[in-house]
Amino acid sequence: MVNDLLDVAADRKHPTKRNRPFAFGELPIPVGLILEVALLAGGVAFAWLCGSPQFSVILALYFLVSNAYSLRLKYETLLDVMVLSALYTGRVLAGGAAANVPISTWLLGFSIFLF
Fold it and tell me: What is the distance between the terminal CA atoms of the chain, rounded to a whole angstrom?
């Protein structure tokens, strides 16, 4: 959502992205900012309820990297692809940590290859 909020002006000029809720004007930007804060609070609460320190660390790293991506890293061609792959892999790791299920090296290797 942060990425969409930051890209509203460019998205309004794009042939397909102009139909996104913020760019189209269907969802006001102030509502997006409120939703962003609410979703962040919900994520922190969920991490606390899971009781997994690993999940909390992965969630914090995901938050930092995804915001760095939205603010700057997406403009670096090769780094863009690598960061997106790392974020997708982080989702696999976060799922395992939240469910307290170990992630096999096979799943991790396949996921990294696919991403």
Answer: 21
Please tell me the number of Cα atoms within 13 Å of 24 on its side-chain side: 9
- Please write the tens of the pLDDT for every residue from 67-115: 999 999 999 989 999 999 999 999 999 999 999 999 999 999 999 999 9
Within 10 angstroms of residue 94's Cβ, the number of other Cβ atoms is 22
pLDDT of res. 52: 86
Task: Tell whether 57 and 104 lie within a shared domain.
Answer: yes
E strand spans, the chain: none
What total of structural domains would you count in the chain? 2
Identify whether residues 115 and 105 lie together within a single domain. Answer: yes
Task: Domain of residue 9: give its range.
Answer: 1-50
pTM of the predicted model as reported, rounded to 2 decimal places: 0.83
CB 55 within 8 A of CB 98: yes
d(CA 33, CA 74): 21
- CA diameter of the chain: 45
